[in-house]
Amino acid sequence: MTPVLAASAAALATAPAVLVTLVAALLLLTLRAWTQITGLVLTRHVTLLLDGAIGALAIMFVALVAVRFITVG
Amino acid sequence: MADLALALPTARRTTATAKVREWVPAVCTAAAAVLWIVTVRRTDFAAMRPLGLVTILGPSYFLGLAVISVGLAVELVRGRPREAWLCTLVVALVVYLFGTPCAVEPVAALTSAWVHAGFVRYVFLHGNVLNGFTAEFSWPGTFSMFALLVGFTGKTTAIPLLRWFPLGIELAYLPALVAIARASGVSKRVGWLGIAIFYGTDWIYQDYFSPQAVNFLMYLVVVAVVLTCWRPLATAAAGTAPALRARFGSLRDAVRPRRLLGYESVAVWSPGTVLATFFVVVLISLATAMSHQLTPYAIVLALVACLVTRRLGRPELPAIAFLLAVGWLSLGASNYWLGHLSQIFGNIFQIGSTLSGNVSSRVTGSASHRLVVDARILLTLALFGLAAVGAVRRATASRTLELLTVAPFLVLAGQSYGGEGLLRVALLSGPFASLLVASAVMPRRTGAIRPIVRPFRLGRHGRALLALAITVGLLGAATTMTVVRGGNDYYESFAAGELDAVNLTYLHVHAGQTVGLVAPYAPIGQWAVGSVRAYAVAGAGTVPTLRQMRRNLLHVRPSYVILSRAQGNWGEVLGGLPTGWQHQLALFLVANGYVVFGRTPTAVVLYTAHGF
């Protein structure tokens, strides 16, 4: 699915790309909060991986929203 | 309690005086109730003058406000204030300020409330929204919720809710306000005084049947839950007040990663409860994201304010709220921004022009209207000015209230919100600014963050002076608020005859036809959404000349034209048109093919068979 979504600017601007990124970011943020609140101990490597993924998805989400505004709006 | 003991001299009271004071709140509440009933029974809506609601309220109303202010002041300066009586008196204040218009005005005020009832009916009947009809349908959460409620009650319309909605929603704010006051680090008496000040200065008429009224409740609940759940980690209190330079230096701590990751606050609840709280806040953020344009971003800013002041332990919450808000704008509200991107991004970072545009666009109209607008500006400036005094006078564990007061103003950096941004921002800041104002009167003396100005002791009669100051302040604020909140009621409230005229029109109008108005001031829009068009010659802020009205009405040629009391008053107050100008307009329309279709004591319906 990813290659299809990233095929062109117009494809990036479609709702599925924004939605998929949004849902992924939300899930990871919720996972992070859940581990912290319940006191689940994560290794430093996993924590960095989780935070990095959240950061990357958030940036991707904002970029995709911007592309959607420009190409559709 | 300890604060007041420090601020006031200990007074030796006789048992008799103490007993009298014990009964003051009860007597005040009973007297206020009687005076309110007298006010409502004696008020004649038809006698309203250009200054609005205040012109029809008799002395009993203001006497009642004075009685409530005295009751609150006496209870607040007691050694041990009784929360039950404070709550009762605040409820009485709310009934006076927000329930009186509901009781004395024959039908619900504000056209927007009727239009929203129409949107709810559309969602109820069709199970979806009408794409491209209005920007509000791009954030339909509140309409869907009320459509569900309407269905539960067995009705088909939300109209029965409209009239008493302002009182109901203001009372619904109270539990959240109490929770915020209790958790924000101010004393019990400052909390109740702050709540009374909030209601006494909440002139911004956003509590009518609308998404923003419901979403303001959501906003308060989110802040209340977060403040109650998380507390700052204890830090050592400074012995003396540090220099201003050292204070500004400590601002750097607010943006250190440790604080931004939530490690400087601690949850007071069990992990299970915190997890449930987390999901509740996420759920509210989701509901708000799809219900209102502005509130989701205000929630994000409030959560960030709590995070940097050590009152939120989960940095994921503002991130999730932001993603949901932007996600809905991008995906759910695309009907709104397709082709209108400049409306969203055109005003970014133009705070100066947004502020001046929001203010200057309202300072127009007759002398009475300008007086009301000037009083609104002064009341708002006084609130925020006194809040600043409270900020420098109080000691505290964290500057959450200060930041929550300021944070909503950042929304203005985004957009002007159609000229209403400043009003909404003042509303969102209001509860926190009010607690700071109360802190200016009775500042806390303990806390890691020391007051900027040195505390001073009141003299021998400190307690009596404080009670007098609270009474005068509350009464002054509540009286001003009554004048300015109801200042537009001369043309924004409606008589029963005006509703009858609108209903008569809806009874006969066919799909595809247009109902014409001179100005958007009529109880219209509650039926036939999407099939019958309502056309107003003038916008809410501009008043065309009589010649322009005639030309436009003949050009559009609506099948029905409704001329009514509220529209006539609007022309007189905002446009300086002569009394009876609508009669001239009606004669002109009759001379140009219209016939009088129906007439009530306060409205006339004109009809033409050759209209659109």
Strand percentage of chain A = under 5%
State the distance separating the first and last CA atoms of chain A. Answer: 24 Å
Mean pLDDT of chain A: 84
N-to-C series of helices and strands of chain A: HHHH
How would you classify the helix and strand content of chain B by structural class?
A: mainly alpha
* Helix count, DSSP H or I runs of 4 or more residues of chain A: 4
Looking at the structure, what is the overall shape of chain A? elongated
Q: Report on the biggest sheet of chain A.
A: none
Count every beta strand of chain B, where a strand is a DSSP E run of 2 or more residues: 7
The counted number of beta strands of chain A is 0
- Quote the distance from N terminus to C terminus of chain B: 69 Å
State the major sheet of chain B: 5 strands, mixed
Overall outline of chain B? globular
Describe this entry's structure for a reader.
The complex is a heterodimer of chains A (73) and B (612). Chain A has 73 residues and is mostly helical. Chain A has one domain. Chain A contains four helices and no strands. Chain B is mainly alpha-helical and 612 residues long. Among the domains of chain B are: 107 residues; 54 residues; 114 residues. Chain B is built from 28 helices and seven strands. In chain B, the strands form two sheets. Chain B has a five-stranded mixed sheet with strand order 4-3-5-7-6, sandwiched between helices. A two-stranded antiparallel sheet of chain B has the order 1-2. The mean pLDDT of chain B is 89. The chains are: A mainly alpha (73), B mainly alpha (612). Chains A and B meet through helix 3 and helix 4 of A and helix 13 and helix 15 of B.
Give keywords.
heterodimer; A: 73 residues; 4 helices; B: 612 residues; mainly alpha; globular
Could you give a quick summary of the protein structure above?
The complex is a heterodimer of chains A (73) and B (612). Helix content of chain A is 84%, strand content 0%. By secondary structure, chain A is an all-alpha fold.
